[in-house]
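User: Please fill in residues for this 75-position structure.
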């Protein structure tokens, strides 16, 4: 990923564009806890519990690749 600079070139911008991730690191910790407690839950059940615990609403298909990327295994 290329670093983008301000118009005058003096300082790098912290945000280089694109859509920001839907889930932040604190959300991943919540997901890990949910899957640890309810390993046989469906993705929809995990999404519902995630909404309940974090207040952030995401669909099950947003959660799925995050679980895979973090090597969080469901039964």
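Assistant: Residues filled in for all 75 positions:
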């Amino acid at each position: 990923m290329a670093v983008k600079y301000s118009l005058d070139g003096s300082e790098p911008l912290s945000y280089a564009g694109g859509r920001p991730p839907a889930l932040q690191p604190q959300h991943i910790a919540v997901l890990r806890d949910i899957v640890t407690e309810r390993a046989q839950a469906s993705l929809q059940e995990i999404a519902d519990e995630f909404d309940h615990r974090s207040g952030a609403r995401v669909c099950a298909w947003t959660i799925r690749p995050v679980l895979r990327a973090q090597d969080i295994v469901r039964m």
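For context: The chain has three helices and no strands.
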